[in-house]
Amino acid sequence: MNKALLREDEAQEYVGGLPERTFRKYFGDHAIRLGKSNYYRPKNLDAIVDKFAYGDQPEAGK
Question: Pick from 49, 53, 59, 60: most CB atoms within 10 A?
Answer without folding.
Answer: 49
